[in-house]
Amino acid sequence: MAYRMNMPPNEERASQRLFGTDGVRGVANVYPMTAEVAMQLGRALAHLIRNGPHRHRVIIGKDTRLSGYMLEQALAAGLISMGVDVDLVGPLPTPGIANLTTSMRADAGAVISASHNPYQDNGIKFFWRDGFKLPDETEAKIEELVASGAIDSIRPTATKIGRAFRLEDARGRYIVFLKTTFPRELTLEGLTVVVDCANGAAYKTAPAVLEELGAKVITLGVQPDGKNINHKCGALHPENLAKCVVKNGANLGIALDGDADRLIVVDEKGQVVDGDAIMAICTGELVTRKELKKKTLVATVMSNIGLERAVANYGVKVVRTKVGDRYVVEEMRKNGYNLGGEQSGHLIFSDHTTTGDGTLAALQLLAVMCRQQKPVSELASIFQPVPQTLLNVVVKNKRELGELPTVMRAIQDVEKKLGKDGRVLVRFSGTEPKARVLIEGTDAARNEQYAQQIAQELSAALNG
Fold it and tell me: Phosphoserine-modified residues are where (predicted)?
């Protein structure tokens, strides 16, 4: 569980899970997102990476939340207290930290961000020296070290204490990397692109990349004040972006989230193009260029059945995973696939990077536009989604669905009514105290009705 609404007593903390599906996350300055826990996480990570006589180093980045200052300093203090040096890069997209971790041969990378959550929340997630997020077993070791106090007595002194440095050119390094992922023979000259950076970590990098590649760039969400990250802007709220695209006659609208690891697009007509549609477009291009490995696309259980139908036209199969880009990446690494992602806009092009990268994904889509000389609306027409309804239900507790007979009866009843033309997916969020109810079927009105039925049973069972 990523966090609880009520802080557990001290003696119960050892039994609480810290890591959810995307690191540790919660309300800033409330357990577990406190300075004390951040310091303990830093100490535990330092203990795990120390493996030899060389000086060890961790890259630390963050998004633009007010609480990032507090957690950045605490995490750095924990690492330094264990004899590990840190490079502080300030606001930089999550994928930028993954990239710097590998390019600078650091031992690990750390990102202080709650991604798409409101500014009151924050989180900490780690990358290993290979640029991939920590596997479950490594996160479990960190939790054990934090809970047990086993490393409390390890206190380097004198010259063995770590040091902190400010990495001044981090943004420039990441911008250069992003530009290398765009085909050298192409240019964005003549295109007008609106980019909404959600007042988050990409507020300087994304516009710079697009401008340097030749596009005329109109910016939204590039004035962070510590409190406006994701607020009525970015990937979760593309409404203003859509209006701006139409008003300015732009070719494309790009919406990122707070840490810029996800992408939602708006076409030239102001219509939203989600992660499923982008994957369908890029799948077709990779097949045409004979670059899609094993003719397989990796998606999660949340992706629309329309995605499978779209890519089937190219002879491509879809492998589905649990929700979470980390599980998509694990499947890709395990079986040698090179394209995967989520409907929400986490898109992984593993020929270029190790994690979801909203700006990089936008560049890959722009490359398809340039090569085919077609507008996004035409490219996206290959994807015809089946109507979906997604409801979020705030819950006080999370329990196995099998332990909730009234909920299971409601799910089974809806599944029977939908038959083979639809599906039901009910899951708990790994980052928020919510249950998510997804209904997919041919009739949108009935989908909404069915989702409400299940949501009511969930609320009654878990909030009573």
Answer: 115
Q: Where residue 445 sits, what CATH number does that domain have? A: 3.30.310.50
CA distance 298 to 333: 11
Q: 147 with 226, same domain?
A: no
Catalytic residue among 113, 115, 303, 344: 115
443 domain residue, yes or no: yes
Instruction: Note if 377 is an active site residue.
Output: no
Tokens of 151: 């490393």
131's tokens = 């640029």
Distance CA 454, CA 413 (A): 10
Q: Are strands 388-394 and 347-349 parallel, antiparallel or unpaired?
A: unpaired
Q: Are residues 238 and 116 in the same domain?
A: no
DSSP 234: G
Task: Assign 107 to helix, strand or coil.
Answer: coil
Q: Indicate the angle between helix axes 35-49 and 136-148, nearest 10 degrees.
A: 120
> How far does CA 398 lie from the centroid of its chain?
22
Confidence band, pLDDT 50/70/90 cuts, at residue 437 = very high
Which helix or strand (DSSP H or E) is residue 464 part of? none
What residue numbers does the annotated binding site cover?
115, 257, 259, 261
pTM of the complete model beyond 0.85: yes
Residue ranges for the known binding site for Mg(2+) are 115, 257, 259, 261
Q: Is residue 10 part of a domain?
A: no
Strands of 317-321's sheet, edge to edge? 317-321, 296-300, 339-341, 347-349
pLDDT in tens, 374-431: 999 999 999 999 999 999 999 988 899 999 999 999 999 999 999 988 999 999 987 7
Task: Round to whole Å and give the CA distance between 13 and 143.
Answer: 10
CATH of the domain at 128: 3.40.120.10
Which domain range does residue 106 map to?
24-167
How many beta carbons lie within 10 A of that of residue 186, not counting itself?
Answer: 15
| Beta strand extents in 66-170 (DSSP E only) | 85-91, 108-112, 121-128, 164-166
Total domains present in the chain: 3
